[in-house]
Amino acid sequence: MDILEAILTRRSIRKFTGEVLNDDDLKTILKAGFYAPSAKNFQPWHFVIVKNSKTLEDISQIHPYAKMVPSAGCCIVVCGDKNDQNEEGFLIEDCSAAIENMLLAAHGIGLGAVWLSMYPISSRSEPIAELLSIPKNLITVGMIAVGYKSEEKTTDDRYKLEKIHFEKW
Amino acid sequence: MDILEAILTRRSIRKFTGEVLNDDDLKTILKAGFYAPSAKNFQPWHFVIVKNSKTLEDISQIHPYAKMVPSAGCCIVVCGDKNDQNEEGFLIEDCSAAIENMLLAAHGIGLGAVWLSMYPISSRSEPIAELLSIPKNLITVGMIAVGYKSEEKTTDDRYKLEKIHFEKW
Predict the structure, then answer these.
(1) pTM attached to this predicted model
(2) Highest CATH level, class, for A15-149
(3) Fewer beta carbons below 10 Å: N end or C end of chain A?
C-alpha cells in the first residue's frame, strides 16, 4: 500500500475475527516499530508481545478501553527504557513514533489495529507492568491490539485549515 | 512509495539544497499530520508553517540542533492545545504521531526532513513559542525541518531481537 494512502485510510480498528496473526506479519509490524526515529537515535524502546489468551483477558480487565484485546489475539506493549533515554518526554515521543509506525505497517498489510494509551495514567500502566514483569526502569507508554479486522471504516475529513498558521500564530 | 519501504528507508535528513518546497507538497505533508490517531480522536494539534528566512534564522539560533533549518527552507512547528486535550502525556503522544506521519509523508514524496525535539526542554520551546506568538494554552512539542535533500542515507539494521519479549519480560 502506498505510504500516503496508508496514512490517510488508517483507522482505529476494534472488531476482530479472532484469528491470530502469524509470525511473519508480527515481525513486519515490529520491524516498523524499530525503524522509528528517536532522540539522538537512542532507540530506547522494548516490545512485549502477548498472545496468551489468559494474559490478554487480564489486560482487558485492567485497561478500561481494552475490551477488544482478547478477540484481536495479539497485544504489543511498548515500553521505553529510562536507562537508554533519561529525558522522559523524549522517551514518550520516541515510543509514540514507534507505535505510529506499527499502526501504519499493520494497516499496510491489511490488518487492523488500535492504540491503547497508558502513559501517564498509572492506573493502567502500573498493573500492566506488574502483570508482564516489566522492570521499574521502563515506562509502559502504550499498547497496540492487532489482528484480523472484522470491521471496515472510512475516514472523515480531518484537514482543518483553521489549525494551520502561516509564519506565526 | 510503499508504506513498509517508506518506514524502513526514512532517515533524518539534515542537508538541503535550499530550494523551498511548494504548496502542494506542503499540503500533502500537513494532511498526513492531520490524519494521525489521537486519544479519543480529539485531534488536538496545530501547525505553524515558517518559510520566512529571517524567522528560520532565528529558529536556528534558538534551538541547538536546528542549524539546518534555514537551508531546508521550511519549518513546521507542531503544537498541542491543552484546551483540546488536558492530559499532557496524551497531547505529547498525539503530536508525536502527527510528526511521524509528516516525516513519513515527506520521505514518501522524495523530500528530506528531520524531527527537532522541543518538549520538555523549555529553553527550546519557550523562546520558539514567543518568537511565533504561540498562545500559552499550547505546548510546542516539536518541529520538522523539511525541504529538498542534498544527502542520501542508507538505513542500518535496527531490528533487535533482544528488545522483543514474548508473553512477559
Answers:
(1) 0.98
(2) alpha beta
(3) C
- For chain B, percent of residues with pLDDT exceeding 70: 100
| Among A157, A163, A38, A98, residue whose Cα is nearest residue B79 | A163
Grid cell locating A112: 487492523
Amino acid identity of A160? K
Q: Report residue B152: phi and psi, to 5°.
A: -120, 140
- Look at residue A32 in the predicted model and tell me its pLDDT: 98
CA distance A164 to B100: 18
From the CB of residue B24, how many other CB atoms can be counted at a distance below 10 Å?
A: 9
DSSP H helical segments within chain B, as ranges?
3-9, 23-34, 53-62, 69-72, 88-108, 122-131
The Cα A42–Cα A45 span in angstroms is: 9
For testing the chain B interface, which of A34, A38, A100, A144 should be mutated: the one with the most B CBs within 10 Å?
Answer: A100
Going from N- to C-terminal start, the domains of chain B cover 10-152
Cell of A129: 507492568
In chain A, what is the straight-line distance between the N-terminal and C-terminal CA atoms, in Å? 36
Q: Quick check: A167 and B120 CB within 8 A?
A: no
pLDDT value of position A155: 87
Model confidence over A19-75: pLDDT tens digits? 999 999 999 999 999 999 999 999 999 999 999 999 999 999 999 999 999 999 999
Scanning B74-113 for CB atoms below 8 A from A yields: 87-90, 92-93, 96-97, 99-101, 103-105, 107-109
The pLDDT tens digits of the residues spanning A66-99 come to 999 999 999 999 999 999 999 999 999 999 999 9
Beta-carbon contacts of A29 under 8 Å, excluding residues fewer than 6 positions away, are A76, A102, A105, A106, A109, A111, A113, A146
CATH class, range B10-152: alpha beta
